[in-house]
Design brief:
The structure is a homodimer. Chain A is mainly α. The first copy, chain A, folds into two domains: about 5-155, Methane Monooxygenase Hydroxylase, Chain G, domain 1; about 155-495, Neurolysin, domain 3 (Orthogonal Bundle). In chain A, about 65% of the residues lie in helices and about 5% in strands. The first copy, chain A, is built from 20 helices and three strands. Chain A has a three-stranded mixed beta sheet, with helices on both faces. In chain A, strand 2 and strand 3 form a beta hairpin. In chain A, helix 16 crosses helix 17 (about 440-445) and helix 16 (about 415-435) packs across helix 20 (about 485-495). The longest helix of chain A is centred in the first third of the chain and has 29 residues, at about 5-30. Chain A is globular and about 65 Å long. Chain A starts with a helix and ends with a helix. The interface of A and B includes residues 33 and 242 of A.
Chain lengths: ~500, ~500
């Protein structure tokens, strides 16, 4: 698009990206490097950056520029770069400007109180300590949803915040298919004879874990001239520039799998970031499309690739060079050691097969809460009832139940489903990729990850935010995402028969 | 001061500090962490920050606020916080606004060209390749000096940029005293029998060097809860917040002294930063006063403290725990191994006794250049002539002579003297401190560094930029800085008799 207002938006978009990448570095540094006394000043800096970002993006002239462009689209191809950028700027601008200032302030205020009351409630396993703040946050999120607007359910406006275009109806449908098969599958997977953990137990030097992880990350395609891996309490991936992708992981001396799969997961995120088009950096079409698609890339490299027998067929000899105790294991044993199902209370510790049950429970709870069907006071009992139904376990205390996750204390309702969408997308895309290009499977068997990565580059990474997430996945795979591929994937991995 | 304009200046000053600290992190990260492909985008970010800083600080209303305050000072105590802040804001504002925009742009343009032509000239040892850009930079710096104004010499306006209030006349006088005694002292020190380097030669593990250095830094008072030490190509110290001080050093496997004295030097800078008043952070009175005072703190802990016999009496047993080969050395041998004089071409490799000769040569050259007494074409011959005179060595090529330093290629004329001022201030302050408080020497003998640090805290760190640098030093020491204490210090260390 050649309109002067469009150029102004391009410049602003690039400038805002420079600014938010600097804030990204402040945050990365806080997790990875900063000594503890720095925290107060760093928080003030971060607040300054988010205020500055908001003020620049929501300036009245920005709205005028967007409107001017919209009035002058003429016969602009709706799939063109400009049309996609314009669509995303409008969406972001409306999201940021439709909330009245006092709602923004009140939300920030309650969030910070709720974070404290949640942390204390979790420590004491005392839901009532968190309940009043949770009630307020739900009320404020309802107000936000009303400001943003929705077609069907109020909760849709919250879902859309984390996964553009997703709705309660769509997610309910796909989760229903998943759950029907997953419950018996979990039952069967958990009754498999467990693999003797003694066989992988050892004292794994952190330096050797780092060297092995790096070899793996490099082999699957991570560019270490445009990124690095550091140590942090929570594994994460953050992009600080078009050629600057930072991964973190953590290490267990007793189990090399923890850091390896942490790194493979974050490498998947990192490959997505490194695959975005450099020339469009700073614009929506140069940016990752959604959490659910981002998570598909991390899960793909962690699970579909990294926990496969083909992976261990290739990497077990190398792993045994670093960790001689592994030389006693067969490829089959190693694969099994990396694919073990067990029912447990805590989502973040769950294996691949039980994980989605945790998510569906949260999605159903949130749906009910925002449909006014579940009062706050009843959350613990309802959680425990549903947990018993899905997992067959009695929740012993709320810290192992409805108080375990940080998300609600941050007002992050609508976030959880993106994790399972990531799993479903990963399996769906992996299946499509293999059926479209026979070199992918040959490559995986030979430790050549380029065909798979190239497929993702072209179809998922390079389009950036050109399409809505579900459209992107459907275009890439040739069919909309369902639970089928994921269920087949889980069956092939978790049932040893 | 209670005027509304004063409060606006306080808020602006705090905001600019938040911003420049974020830029500081971008720069620190580039030196310490960033992978190489990140460099282009990072440069754009840094440029954005410096543009943003300049624009905010030089906005016309800022000048109005300063003027308003100046008109309303009434009977404000000239030594009050407000008066000092106002004096520094005025000085900074005038410095930033007195240059016409086209001069700023042209200076930045020529600097970046000159950096390249200098690097190439140095590599080829071909001065003529750099001469045209150097000529232009000198011309532009003369224009800058005219814009800023000066009382006596044009060069004073450049000196003032790096050391507030310093003048050619004052520096010439103190350097003349220094040089008269230093030339024979260097002669004598360099004719001492050299200490056999074989005795300290070993293979020093980097992990052990890090652990030993950290113990030393902690013992002299560096707060690791408010800072850290990392590895970088060039050792430096940078403050990223009131409680976030970052040091870097580099390691030689063959010689632990390199990283130890690197760390002690940067720790001295870090102690200054950590000693500034937290409640005044972001304001001139909470900021370090000058390069020459900063350098006095780094030199003090590196040289006066760290290379003393008392230091090694205390630390040799600990060092020998980390590095058993050192157990064979006596305290006297170790001290001698850390105080060896040798004439050499390169300033950054020079020992403490020859160092100031390098600086004085540069100061005299710059004085002559800006006094129109030394045309660019004659710089190499003049450098070599003076070098022969001071060091008794023939410069073999310009890379070992007038092309060795980066400063001129950046237009940094006036910077060099701050290094020697640092040395003189360190000795002057150290002598005064010991004579004022007898516990300081007792402490140093017993490894208790608190009395010395406390003296510096109260008299040098906590005043921030309340006084001009030379006034601060004079108030602290009770007399203005001369070369005497430094010459006495060098004699005691470098003449083994």
């Amino acid at each position: 698009m050649n309109h002067p207002a469009y150029q102004k938006l391009v410049d602003l978009s690039n400038e805002l990206k420079l600014l938010s990448d600097a804030a990204g570095l402040l945050s990365w540094d806080q997790e990875v490097n900063m000594a503890k006394k720095g925290v107060g000043y760093r928080a003030r800096q971060m607040a300054w950056f988010s205020g500055e970002y908001h003020a620049r993006f929501t300036a009245p002239e920005v709205g005028d520029w967007i409107s001017e462009c919209e009035e002058n689209v003429g016969d602009l191809d709706p799939e063109s770069d400009s049309a996609a950028n314009l669509r995303e700027w409008r969406h972001g601008y409306d999201r940021e400007t439709k909330l009245p200032a006092d709602l923004v302030t009140e939300f920030a205020r309650v969030r910070s109180l709720a974070h404290e009351s949640w942390a204390e409630a979790r420590e004491k396993s005392e839901f009532t300590h968190f309940a009043p703040d949770l009630e307020k946050l739900i009320g404020l999120c309802k107000q936000q949803a009303e400001c943003w607007g929705y077609e069907d359910k109020l909760y849709d406006a919250l879902l859309d915040k984390y996964e553009r275009g997703s709705t309660t109806a769509e997610i309910t449908a796909v989760f229903a298919d998943l759950k029907k098969e997953l419950v018996p599958l979990v039952e069967e997977a958990c009754s498999q004879e467990p693999f003797d953990p003694v066989k992988v137990g050892a004292d794994y030097s952190i330096e050797k874990q780092q060297a092995f992880n790096r070899e793996v990350a490099e082999a699957v395609g991570f560019d270490f001239e445009a990124g690095r891996i550091d140590t942090a309490v929570h594994p994460f991936c953050t992009g600080l520039g078009p050629l600057d992708t930072r991964l973190t992981t953590r290490y267990m001396k007793s189990d090399f799998r923890s850091s390896l799969y942490g790194v493979l997961h974050e490498t998947g995120h990192g490959l997505y970031d490194q695959g975005l088009r450099e020339e469009d950096y700073g614009l929506p079409i140069g940016d990752a499309v959604s959490l659910g698609v981002h998570e598909s890339q991390s899960r793909l490299w962690e699970n579909q690739v990294g926990r496969s027998p083909e992976f261990w067929d290739r990497w077990l000899p190398k792993a045994a060079e670093y960790f001689p105790n592994l030389a006693e294991l067969s490829v089959e044993e190693m694969t099994r050691a990396c694919n073990q199902a067990e029912r447990s209370f805590i989502r973040v510790e769950a294996d691949e097969v039980t994980y989605d049950l945790h998510i569906m429970l949260r999605f159903e709870m949130e749906s009910a809460i925002f449909n006014d069907e579940l009062p706050v006071a009843e959350i613990p009992a309802e959680w425990n009832r549903r947990f018993k139904e899905s997992f067959g376990l009695e929740v012993d205390n709320d810290s192992n139940g409805c108080l375990q996750d940080i998300h609600w204390s941050m007002g992050g309702f609508g976030y959880f489903p993106t994790y399972s969408l990531g799993n479903l997308n990963a399996s769906h895309l992996f299946k499509a990729a293999k059926s479209q290009d026979s070199e992918i499977e040959t490559g995986l068997a030979n430790g050549n990850y380029t065909p798979l990565l190239q497929w993702m580059r072209t179809r998922i990474h390079e389009p950036g935010s050109r399409f809505l997430p579900k459209d992107l996945v459907e275009r890439a795979a040739g069919s909309p995402v369902t639970a089928d591929a994921h269920l087949a994937h889980l069956r092939s991995r978790y049932l040893f028969g």
